[in-house]
Amino acid sequence: MFQNILIPTDGSDQSQRAIRTGVELAKLHGGRITGIHVIPDYHLLIAYEGAFDPVTEERIEEEAKARADAYLEFLRSAATAAGVACATVCETSDHPYDAILRTADANHCDLILMTSHGRKGLAAVLLGSETRKVLTHAKVPVLVVR
User: Fold this and answer.
1) 124 pLDDT tier (thresholds 50, 70, 90)
2) Rg (CA), the chain
3) 134 near 100, Cβ under 8 Å?
4) Mean pLDDT, to the nearest integer, of 100-114?
5) Are 39 and 90 in contact (CB under 8 A)?
6) Residue 143: strand, helix, or coil
7) End-to-end Cα separation, the chain, in angstroms
8) For the whole prediction, is pTM greater than 0.85?
9) pLDDT tier, 49 (very low <50, low <70, confident <90, very high otherwise)
10) What is the residue range of 140's domain?
């Protein structure tokens, strides 16, 4: 039924639970998974703060890429342990939901499996629910893991 499941991850415990669920579902259907992590566009944040320091910007980007690789490595390891084929994508965007939808389309994913929430506190209020935005705009089914 589902041959290519897109699983966005933010490295949270909820995302790790969603990854395990997605891997099990892909294995059950003989499918594969595509993992994605979206790095915020730090250029915009740094410009907003009014300070531009190329060294700081480079360090922030390197740290973000290292975190992304760790998050996606968890997904790759879970898939490998279950014998499920997987690919991973790391995107940079100030609109994570848009990067998720573009990746689903570009990789011909037939299901997006994600958590109901990831960020907490003020970040969640300011950024809104990426899950809600994916649910609103997705062309394929979205399975939300609580």
Assistant:
1) low
2) 15
3) yes
4) 98
5) yes
6) strand
7) 22
8) yes
9) low
10) 4-145
